[in-house]
Amino acid sequence: MCVLILVWKVVIRCKPDMKGTVRYLAGIAGQSGYGSKSTAEQVTEHCSSLPPNLTAIVTGATSGIGAETARVLAKRGVRIVIPARDLRKAAQVKENIQKEHPKAEIIILEIDLSSFASIKKFCSEFLFLGLPLNILINNAGKFSQKLEFSEDKFEMTFATNYLGHFLLTELLLEKMIETATQTGVQGRIVNVSSVIHGWVNKDHFSFNRMLQPKYYNATRAYAQSKLANIMHANEIARQIKERNANVTINAVHPGIVKTGIIRDHKGVITDSLFFVASKLLKSTSQGASTTCYVALNSKTEGMSGRYFVDCNESRCSTLANDDSEAHKLWKQTRALIHKRLRAN
Ligand SMILES: NC(=O)c1ccc[n+]([C@@H]2O[C@H](COP(=O)([O-])OP(=O)(O)OC[C@H]3O[C@@H](n4cnc5c(N)ncnc54)[C@H](O)[C@@H]3O)[C@@H](O)[C@H]2O)c1
């Protein structure tokens, strides 16, 4: 019974379109030819002759979906930059990838995405290397069980998942546009969101309350940050289009994947329930497929400001699709971050 409720909550309630739900549960491929069972390797199979010297930054690549994304992109010949808090874990990921692909070029740099100062330092260090930047995967994610505040005094889940990636994208966007202009290769940004963004309605979407909530609800904070990830992608896509630049930005839901973030979500999933429910979850390779599809597959070239699930374009919530709300959120976020940076 519990498992049925969990499936109902996570899969059915979160999926705005029933056709997508049926396709997901049955593992049927969608229009793209890929579906919920496709792996990251399968969706990048045709990418063996990519342009040389491609560089990707993959946040949160020390575990789960990010580690698999980094592995598969490296396998296709992309140079990988791993921004990591835990340098030992990053070194382990690098070693694992290079065991499989000895020629893989992996660079590790320190970052804490919940700290503006750390993000600025990472970006200066990366830009100092003089490398091109073709792909940015905003994948790192946090699901804080209790109310915690970041170094900059913002709620931790929102700070890590949204504010951090907002600043990272802002500081790297010009480099991506410059690389795309010089090489003629389209730059691609992927914001890893979640279907759970649909749980947030307009009443709960107050910027100030998200930064410093009075009554903390872990699931709501996570859902808000994931909604903000989609709105960020939509707004930046609009701005890039206005500039006529050759960079795309999209948001993805990776599926419900067997990773640390799900295991840590004890509020909904107890240990025994996790064991049963894990049989229904995607593997990390399936979980990384939509990110890799949007980051590398030729079928997504030129697509921007879209939302993908199971390697197919999908519908996101009405609020996530609201252009004026997205612009408002972008303005508020930018003002807040710059005020904080000036004060530091
Ligand atoms: N697993 C799922 O079912 C699921 C579903 C929907 C969305 N997602 C999203 O997928 C992404 C990847 O998560 P995952 O499932 O692989 O979980 P995970 O816990 O294995 O990976 C999260 C990664 O983010 C990194 N990270 C967290 N806080 C950080 C910080 N302050 N600075 C730098 N790095 C930080 C962690 O070190 C880790 O490498 C997340 O954005 C998550 O919200 C996951």
TrEMBL record:
Keywords: Oxidoreductase. This is Glucose/ribitol dehydrogenase. Belongs to the short-chain dehydrogenases/reductases (SDR) family. GO terms for molecular function: oxidoreductase activity. It comes from Cynara cardunculus var. scolymus (Globe artichoke). Pfam families: adh_short. Gene3D superfamilies: NAD(P)-binding Rossmann-like Domain (3.40.50.720). InterPro entries: NAD(P)-bd_dom_sf, SDR_fam.
